[in-house]
Amino acid sequence: MLNLDALQAIAAARLNENMGKPLYESYCFSQIPQLVRYLLTEDTQAGLPLTVLEGLPQQYEKVILILVDGFGWCFFERYRDRLPFLKHLFEAGVASKLTTQFPSTTSAHVTTLHTGLPVGESGVYEWFYYEPLVDGIFAPLLFSLAGDRTRETLLQTGLQPEAVFPTQTLYQGLAARGVKSYCFQHQSYAHSPFSQTVCNGAEMVAFRTLPEAMTNLAEAAIAQSGKAYYCFYIDVIDAIAHKYSPNSPQFDAEVCALWLLLEQLLHQSLAGKLHNTLLLITADHGQIEVSPENTIYLNQLSPSIEPWLQRNAQSKPLVPAGGSRDMFLYIQAEFLEKAYDLLTQQLAGRATVYYTQTLVEAGYFGPDPSLRLRERLGNLVILPHQHELVWWYEKDRFEEHHKGHHGGLCRDEMETLLLALPYV
């Protein structure tokens, strides 16, 4: 069934096609960890409105949550009548639209999913941002500086992941309530500094292929006695949309293949073998088709901006931060108003420029953003309009090549989903 209350709440929060608003206190991705606590423990708060479980039991022995990176609400609507498993989820379970947090990025959302902390508390909000402890632009998921060609370069400096990532996790809390947790991630990052820190308390299950992972998850769910939570992260949809665009035949083929695998290996293979178990499927964001060749590079559009940027102790400008759908700028205070006025004029019709403090006060980072987040945020935010990109150019270091992207507040990137279906 379709959750009509969620549709109405999110529609009412939209300002225009380029600007929606995260509903942190109700239908938002940030409430999913609390829903998991509610389903598996005696916690009385569900986080999300109970319409996401309309007609379903509300307590379970096991919960399987699948995060399909990039498969936002727009793709659910595109494929739900075409793919049998999606159609079954829609007809036999509950389909709810959710908002993402802001920014609509993987960094923010996987951190929330593992720690239970919304972006305003976790402080991990984008692919690149200024990190005071390294006095530079940091790539948190890679644990390196922006522009580094290899992962984990900051390990060589002695920086400990616990110093820059949250150490409180959802899995620690579940373990204290007698729930065993498992995280399924691709082997290329399953044991990264980021994953080791934010997944603390769960058993990490690294995999090479999706059929392997789904088979291992199914076997584990059948064999496990007692309460258990399985969190399975799938990145192939997001990756293929970035490379080819979300309207490409390659994307279509990847979506069809993935949902067929899910149907066969995590639905049909478990039918009748699991009881008192709920399947949840969600996404961290959607995607918008873009043309990288039309990217607006700020240092080419407006060279006068560079002298206005804040610099670190080595006199390097703090740029670029955020992403090309939500670019954050660190402007020296005396030039802030001048930069806002200039960029507003130059980007008119293609992007909107905001003082970051305006968005903070309006609740776009949640009700009470932490000092950690505030120290990492730039003081200007550029939000490109539909299909537009704004970034910074350095050949072979910072260039835009994506044909699908996300990070901003347009409908297709910041409206996501939660599908709920019990195993019977």
Automatic annotation (TrEMBL):
Superkingdom of origin: Bacteria
The organism of origin for this protein: Almyronema epifaneia S1
Residues passing through the membrane, by range: none
Name under which the protein is recorded: Alkaline phosphatase family protein
PANTHER family: BIS(5'-ADENOSYL)-TRIPHOSPHATASE, ECTONUCLEOTIDE PYROPHOSPHATASE/PHOSPHODIESTERASE
